């Protein structure tokens, strides 16, 4: 199996293909606004904050790869990447849709790029192949947190397909 195929499998498992952990699209499917903003204790991140954090890093890598660094999201530190927009149902829906869109765009780039493009360093970072590998692991970690928060609220399906 080549590196592109391996990464495509990892990337899909983070969004819409069930593997050893549930994909984010499925995890977020029935999460309400109230569940999205809930935290177990003050100072911990909510589901929505975690999705914003994932979106920040994926969007940054996408725009850097496209050479659009002027448009990339900015944050003064990692904590700022969890910042929410105004807490409305519409904004929750838009955050999810933007995340899904950016994730799929990175998947398309991965699928159609020549290997030399995947190994070309992107501004301020490693080659895309290394960034996507790291992002897939980062996503899996935070998807686990989102599942846990969902379970704490009783929003997790009792039966899964695996």
Automatic annotation (TrEMBL):
SUPFAM superfamilies: DinB/YfiT-like putative metalloenzymes (SSF109854). Residues 24-143 form the DinB-like domain. Gene3D superfamilies: dinb family like domain. Signal peptide: none annotated. Coiled coil: none annotated. This is DinB-like domain-containing protein. It comes from Virgibacillus kapii.
């Amino acid at each position: 199996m080549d590196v592109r195929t391996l990464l495509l499998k990892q990337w899909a498992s983070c969004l819409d293909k069930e593997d050893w952990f549930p994909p984010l699209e499925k995890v977020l499917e029935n999460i309400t606004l109230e569940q999205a903003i809930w935290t177990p204790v003050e100072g911990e991140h909510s589901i929505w904050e975690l999705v914003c954090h994932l979106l920040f890093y994926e969007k940054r890598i996408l725009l850097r790869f496209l050479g659009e660094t002027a448009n990339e999201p900015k944050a003064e530190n990692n904590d700022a990447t969890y910042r929410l927009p105004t807490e409305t149902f519409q904004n929750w829906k838009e955050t999810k849709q933007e995340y899904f869109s950016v994730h799929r765009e990175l998947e398309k780039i991965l699928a159609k790029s020549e290997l030399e493009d995947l190994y070309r360093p992107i501004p301020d970072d490693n080659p895309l192949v290394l960034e996507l590998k790291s992002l897939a692991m980062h996503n899996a970690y935070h998807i686990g947190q989102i599942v846990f928060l969902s379970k704490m609220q009783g929003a997790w399906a009792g039966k899964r397909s695996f």
